[in-house]
Structures are given as C-alpha cells and as structure tokens.
Amino acid sequence: MGVERTQVAIIGAGPAGLLLGRLLSRAGIDAVILEARSREYVEARIRAGVLEQGTVDVLHAAGVADRLDREGLRHGGIYLSFDGARHHIPMEELTGGRSVTVYGQTEVVKDLIAARLAEEKPLRFDAPVARIEDFDGDGPARLHYRHDEAEHELHADVIAGCDGFHGVSRETVAAQVRIWERTYPFAWLGILVDGAPATDELIYARHPAGFSLYSMRSPTVSRLYLQVAPDESMENWSEDRIWSELHARQDGDGFTVNEGPITEASVTPMRSFVAAPMRHGNLFLAGDAAHIVPPTGAKGLNLAAADVTVLAQALAARFREGDDGPLETYSDRCLARVWRAQHFSWWMTTMLHRDPAEDAYGAELALSQLRYVVSSRAQATALAENYVGLPLERTVAAEVARG
Ligand code: APR
Ligand code: PHB
C-alpha cells in the first residue's frame, strides 16, 4: 500500500478526536482518525456525563445533537450535602440562565462515531499509532501505525494528538513539555444502576466516611460514586457493602438512595495534571493528552470539547485563509481555560472529600468552606459560574491582559 496523505491526522477516537474530526469535515478540511482500540470497546467505555452549555452549543453547531436534544437532562442546579442536610445551589438563577445537560460521554462518542461513518470519512479502529516523526519541520509529519495486520504510514500537514493520558503524542514530546501534577489519596468507585434516581438534581455529599455523588443517566438509570482508597480492588466491594455505604453517606432528612440492579462498576483514580505547551511544531495536543482533572468538577469532557473547538477554528484559518495566527495562540488560549478548570476541580475535590491523612483542623476548614458556599450568594455564584462553564472569551481576555 502506498503512503496515504491527509491534511490533519487525528490520533484517538475519544470525544476530543471525534469532535475535532466532525468540526473539520464541516469546515471542508480532510482528516484521518486512527484509534488504537475497537469500536465496541470505545462505545462501551463508561465515563462522565455533565455537558456545559458551551459543549452542548458546539455539538449543535457540529450537527450531532439530535439525540442529545431528545434524551439529555437539563439541570439548573446541584445539591451540596454535608452536616446531615442538603442545600440547593440554583446555578441557573445565579448565572443569568446558564445550565448543564446530563448526557453520558459514552452517548456523545456513539453519536460522533455514527455521524463520521455516515459521512464516510476515514475513521480506523484497531489502528494504534506507534511513532510520530518530522512534526517539527516544514514538510509533512509522518505517522506509523498498524492496521489489518500490516504496517502503514500516514503523512499529514498537522497532527492532532487526541490520544488521551496514555497516548503516544505527549510521550513523543516528553522532553519539551513541562508537567504540573497532583495525585489524591483516594479514588472513585462508580456504579451504573438500573433504577430511577431518587433525586431531581445531582447531589455532591461530604460525610465523615467520605465523599459520594448521586448522579444519573436517564429517568430510569442512576449513576453513583463513592470515595474509596486509591488502590481499592472491586473484590472488596460486595453490592451490599456499596449500598450500605451509599445509604450512610447520602440518606437523611427523609431522603433515601434508590437501589436497583448494578449493571457496571469500576474504580477510577483521581489526578490533576497539566502538560504545556500544547503545541510542538505541527503537533497539537488536545483533551486528556494534555490535561487531566479529578472528576468532582465534571470538567474533563468539557475541556476536551473546548480544546478541539479552538483547534478546529485555528486550523480553518490556516487551511482556508493561510493565516497561522490562531494556531500560534492555540496553546495559551486553551491553557487559560485549563488552569481555571484545574483550580475549580481541585477546590471541589478538596472541599468534598475526606483526606485520610487530614487532621481535624483540615476537616473543619472544608466544612467551613461548604457552609460559606451555601450561605453566601457571592460564593455560590463563584461555584455556579465555574460549574456551568465560564465563557472562553473571559479567560482569553485575562490571558491577553497578562501580556
Ligand atoms: N494510537 C491510536 N489511538 C490511541 C493511542 C495510539 N497510540 N493511544 C491512545 N489512543 C486512543 C485511546 O484508545 C482512546 O480511545 O485515544 C483515545 C483517547 O480518548 P479519551 O481517553 O477519551 O480522551 P479525550 O478524547 O481527550 O477525552 C477526554 O475522556 O477520560 C475522559 O474525563 C475525560 O471526559 C474526558 C475525556
Ligand atoms: C457522572 O454522572 O458520571 C458525573 C457527574 C458529575 C461529576 C462527575 C461524574 O462531577
């Protein structure tokens, strides 16, 4: 087989790679998406599920929001639960009408894959990229990947590294990136439950036994999480133990968690991570390849969508107008939003979890912060505007002002 040539080689068919592919095809730019895993694997992976208004808007603009419109659950608030009581944060009212939509990342991925296949644009599963070369020169970059039991080469003007935290893209530029990171002394055990959520809004709960979250996927499917030890094995968690912990951490005030058959259960580690810059010549990092946030702020998917929206616009400027200006500011513009989300996710995480090494003083600080958030309109607004998503322009303006 001869060498294939494209404008943009996209590594990874997670939400970042798939959405970028869709935005580029709408802009008339050619791309090839290469994904290491199978379609079945990618479509079965259960991930987070809260979309900011800005993410919903981009999915609309990309023409992949029909099912999201029908099945997504609009939420104008959340509950914070601590000291044995639940407090409603009316985010919509506090942010001038902004809200979030609960719709599983898995569903976003399925919709994007269906749209790509319907367009008959290249999307190859079981096609792991092994090596990236010549991404820093004037000529095309070269990718080496394996597919259908053969080695292939793809040449591209630009490479979009959308290959997640364990991908090959960031590894390729490891010597040139600076890393900031923090790990947490806990993980989340998540379950998917066949049963109606007992709550109208998501409940983030701090309890002496640890954090828990009551979320949902539909009117008949619930999603719940428990703080567990970072190296926790599922073997230690019988269904009985999961439910009894959830009741202990969530029930009260006449409210009780609604049990049902557990259809999926897994443990996710918690980490904060940033790699910068996000551009290296013609190689652009996007999504989890460049940054990770702990899931408490529900920002991971939204950051990935924001990155590729900025990247698609910048690539359109290069390929359609020969203007490289927007690509030159890609990294800084993304990182302004990334760091805001890093802070917010860290803040939500430390305020709501019990650090096993924390002293009694630390626990009282977290509780004091929670009491402040639910009693001060200014504090509640700060939480709300971060949770629903800050307009990109505002963080960009801050960046520009900084020089
Ligand atoms: N070649 C091809 N594909 C690869 C390679 C490789 N060498 N390495 C990794 N991949 C694929 C992975 O199999 C995965 O499907 O890249 C994809 C990356 O997708 P995600 O991990 O979903 O990352 P991203 O698209 O950035 O989405 C970020 O996912 O982890 C959540 O919370 C996070 O919501 C956020 C979102
Ligand atoms: C989810 O529903 O999976 C979910 C919701 C909110 C979060 C994290 C995960 O903060």
Task: Give the SSE layout.
Blueprint: E1 4-11, H1 15-26, E2 31-34, H2 39-44, E3 50-52, H3 53-61, H4 66-71, E4 73-75, E5 78-82, E6 85-89, H5 91-94, E7 100-102, H6 105-119, E8 123-124, E9 129-133, E10 141-147, E11 150-161, H7 168-172, E12 178-194, E13 203-205, E14 212-218, E15 221-228, H8 239-250, E16 262-276, E17 279-280, E18 283-285, E19 291-292, H9 300-321, H10 325-328, H11 330-352, H12 360-375, H13 377-388, H14 392-401
Parallel strand pairs: 1-2, 1-11, 2-8, 5-13, 11-18
Antiparallel strand pairs: 3-7, 4-7, 5-6, 9-10, 10-11, 12-15, 12-16, 13-14, 14-15, 16-19, 17-18
The structure holds adenosine-5-diphosphoribose (APR) and P-hydroxybenzoic acid.
